[in-house]
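Ticket #4471: structure export looks truncated?
Reporter: QA, pipeline team
Priority: medium

Steps to reproduce: submit the single chain below to the structure queue and open the exported record.
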Amino acid sequence: MANKILTTETYHEEIRGRLGVGEDVLSDADIDALSVLPIAEAKVITAVPDYAELIDDDRNYVYAAAVSMVAAMLAPSMTARIAKSKKDFDFSIENQVVDWRAFGIQLIDDAYALIDLISTAIHGADAPIFGVAGPTRYKERWRC
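Actual output as written to the record:
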């Protein structure tokens, strides 16, 4: 399946860069998985249905939003992918403790903030507000 928004040759590195990991932690196949990249692009396309017609800054915003959305979908799995510490005979390395779930939420917020910068983006649904009123039985209760 061909990508709709992330069509450059550098999008794998950009997604890894947003997460702060290398190719040894997150492979191209993990990024391109059917349950990740197409779904993330679909979320962005839902908010920006005319993504293919965008130009200049708007095109850059939708691209960056898609990168952030893919990174957000991968963030919760980073806990299992990154070892907490590595030990060898001569050295010991301890990785930073990152709340990947919170970071994923931040990435989603970043994606939607970028979408809000697009001049043609849909900024929420306009739902009509209505109420229902009708007769009450309050008076009937007192007639008995």
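Status: closed, not a bug. The export was complete when the record was re-opened. Leaving a note from the reviewer for reference: The longest strand covers residues 85-87.
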